Amino acid sequence: MITVTTKFLKGAVAAAALFATTPMAQAEVLTMSSWVPPTHFIHTDFLVPLTEKIAEVTEGRVTVTILPAPLASPPQHWELARTGVADITWGNFTYEPERFVSMWFAEFPNAGTNAEAQSRALWQTYEKFLAGNAAFDGVKLLSVGMFGGGQLHHGSKSITSPGDVANQKFRMGGPIQEKLLTALGAVPVAAPATKAYEMLESGVIDGSLHTMESVVNFRLEDVLKHHTVFPNGFYDATFFVAMNGGKWDALSDADKAAIEGIIGEELSAAWGRNFDNQDQPAIEKMTAAGHEFNDASPELIAAVDTVYASMVADWIGAAKSAGVADPEGMLAFYNATYAALAAK
User: pLDDT for 311-342, tens place per residue?
Assistant: First the structure.
């Protein structure tokens, strides 16, 4: 005779066996490759909050782990995301200038000095004009960003006129900056910002191109004490946060919808705000240390504007070849959108 107790025990064993063979739902763990140290504000104030928000809005179903070391050099980070070597990466579009010809316009002079407004305007421009461009295939673009206008910085003298710029050796970081300096009669020297201090100390360069925050964050305030300010920025840089397209597609519809609510224009704005928040304290610190700040003269601004017009004309043809149907309209849209956002 089978007792009630025996029946209960058999049922419990069967239930336990079924539970043991049924896979539990597990969180999707994404990897992020980043190339700044964990003390940098991009890491502490932008990337870490992004990972926290993704976990929060998906209720822990999707988490992001920032790897302890980058998986490749900075210029390779778009490709890391596109090919899925890392799930999420960030970087500068014009580290691959030929791939991202469409983005050159936002790194030219006069792109603005309000990084949040710039970053919002660039996102809107991307969505309206570039979302279907082949250069962006293979990834889910999470955000774009700009840094609020780079300026000219010199180690030993004031730079205000075209004559002051001529024959001075400036460290710079990309082909657009190289063209700009060359056209002004300066001598461009390609090197990362991390090399600026030793190059200034050894006399290899006379000055360097940076945002205001970069002078302080790269600890250059002892060797760059003369700052030339262009009201609309001397040059700029464009950045991305990208996720592998296949990984994005594999997420559940619910998780994709949740993440969509924290990326795009709002995440782009957060990028820009972080740069805006860094710039003013940097200026205050350098002012207190006795640094010299000079407005670019009307003659120097006019010289830069002439170069800018030439750069835009050359870019229009290149952008059309890169699949941008209306480069002039795209640039006009960015400028108008930025102006409206910056005025708020």
Answer: 999 999 999 999 999 999 999 999 999 999 99
CATH of domain 28-98+130-145+239-277: 3.40.190.170
Work out the percent of the chain whose per-residue pLDDT is above 90.
90
Question: 293-320: b or e for each residue (b if 16 or more CB lie within 10 Å)?
Answer: ebebbeebbebbeebbeebbeebbeebe
The separation between the first and the last C-alpha atoms of the chain, rounded to the nearest angstrom, is 84
pLDDT attached to residue 247: 98
Checking if the pLDDT of 188 tops 50, the result is yes
The CA-atom distances, in angstroms, between 260 and each of 56, 69, 122, 320 are 13, 27, 18, 30
Given this model, what pLDDT does residue 25 score?
56
Distances (CA, A) of 264 to 58, 268, 271, 273: 17, 6, 11, 14
What is the chain's mean pLDDT, rounded? 93
Sequence spans of domains, the chain: 28-98+130-145+239-277, 151-235+282-342
Q: How many residues does the chain have?
A: 344
Q: Which of 338, 97, 93, 34 is nearest to 237 (CA)?
A: 93
Q: What is the CA radius of gyration of the chain?
A: 25
Question: 313 CB contacts (<8 Å, ≥6 apart)?
Answer: none
In the numeric block, the tokens 């597990």 are attached to: 26
- Residue 6: predicted pLDDT: 40
Residues 6+ positions from 193 with CB-CB distance below 8 Å: 171, 173, 208, 210, 214, 218
CATH fold label, 151-235+282-342: D-Maltodextrin-Binding Protein; domain 2 (3.40.190)
- With bands split at pLDDT 50, 70 and 90, how would you rate the model's confidence at 4? very low
DSSP string, 285-342: HHHHTT-EEEEPPHHHHHHHHHHHHHHHHHHHHHHHHTT-S-HHHHHHHHHHHHHHHH
